[in-house]
């Protein structure tokens, strides 16, 4: 039986959660807020142009900006309402509804692997408890040789940085860079946010299960 994600648990308690999330960012955009720090950081690390997977894309804020910067973007999120908002706001990228624990894009017609996978916005912290290793294995299988996974999430959300480092290693990643913010401030063990740049090791990881 599939485990309930923390995001879905929040929606069960508040059915308007997705709509409120979309509205919140629309309000920030209308106020002129700079919402593209993640995209700038990812863009700086990506080849020209890159194939980029936005894993846990939400309403397409990061992936949409990366597409504007010339990259070929596929976004996946389990929340159909957020994916519909991404399609409306950011035509061009491929936006798909899908569970990251079962990610298999070749089975859905997306055959090519990715130069970069970005997993921003606390996505790992919103997963069902205990499923992050499975998701990281799936992401590893979708990276091209020499590709990078760039993850960002905050402390105090039930998924610790140390657990992530352990899970990433188990999935076949080496963490080559640890930052405290998307604007490249230095990470320390007391930082309240982690941006981790992970290199995919050449391993055959079985993503079944």
Task: Explain what you see.
The chain is α/β, with parallel strands linked by helices. Helices cover 35% and strands 23% of the residues. The protein contains 8 helices and 7 strands, in the order H-H-H-E-H-E-H-E-E-H-H-E-H-E-E. It has helices spanning 6-13, 17-30, 37-45, 61-68, 80-89, 123-126, 132-141, 161-170; strands spanning 51-55, 72-77, 94-97, 114-119, 143-154, 173-179, 193-200. Strands 3-2-1-4-5-7-6 form a 7-stranded mixed beta sheet, sandwiched between helices. Helix 3 (37-45) packs across helix 4. It is globular, with a radius of gyration of 16 Å.
Quick overview:
The protein contains eight helices and seven strands; from the N terminus they run αααβαβαββααβαββ. With 209 residues, it is an alpha/beta fold. Helix 5 (80-89) links the parallel strand 2 and strand 3.
Q: Largest beta sheet, briefly?
A: 7 strands, mixed
* Fraction of helical residues: 25-40%
Structure summary, number of beta strands = 7
Shape: globular
- Measured by DSSP, the beta-strand proportion falls in 15-25%
Mean pLDDT: 91
Q: Note poorly predicted spans.
A: 204-209
Compute the separation of the termini in Å: 12 Å
Number of helices: 8
Query: What is the rounded Rg?
Result: 16 Å
Reading side by side through the largest sheet, how are the strands ordered? 3-2-1-4-5-7-6
- Give the H and E element order: HHHEHEHEEHHEHEE
Key phrases:
209 residues, alpha/beta, seven-stranded mixed beta sheet, disordered C terminus
Helix and strand topology:
Elements: H1 6-13, H2 17-30, H3 37-45, E1 51-55, H4 61-68, E2 72-77, H5 80-89, E3 94-97, E4 114-119, H6 123-126, H7 132-141, E5 143-154, H8 161-170, E6 173-179, E7 193-200
Helix pairs in contact: 3-4, 7-8
């Amino acid at each position: 039986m599939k485990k309930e994600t923390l995001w879905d648990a929040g929606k069960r308690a508040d059915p308007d959660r997705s709509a409120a999330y979309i509205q919140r960012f629309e309000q920030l955009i209308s106020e002129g807020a700079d919402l593209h720090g993640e995209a700038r950081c990812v863009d700086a690390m990506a080849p020209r142009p890159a194939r980029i997977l936005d894993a846990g894309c939400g309403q397409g804020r990061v992936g949409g900006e990366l597409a504007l910067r010339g990259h070929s973007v596929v976004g996946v999120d389990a929340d159909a309402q957020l994916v519909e908002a991404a399609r409306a706001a950011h035509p061009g990228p491929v936006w798909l509804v899908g569970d990251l624990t079962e990610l298999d894009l070749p089975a859905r017609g997306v055959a090519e692997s990715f130069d970069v996978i970005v997993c921003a916005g606390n996505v790992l912290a919103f997963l069902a408890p205990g499923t992050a290793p499975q998701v990281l294995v799936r992401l590893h299988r979708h990276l091209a040789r020499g590709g990078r996974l760039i993850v960002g999430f905050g402390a105090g959300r039930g998924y610790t940085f140390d657990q992530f480092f352990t899970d990433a290693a188990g999935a076949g990643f080496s963490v080559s860079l640890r930052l405290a913010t998307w604007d490249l401030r230095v990470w320390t063990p007391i930082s309240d946010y982690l941006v981790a740049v992970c290199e995919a090791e050449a391993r055959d990881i079985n993503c079944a299960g």
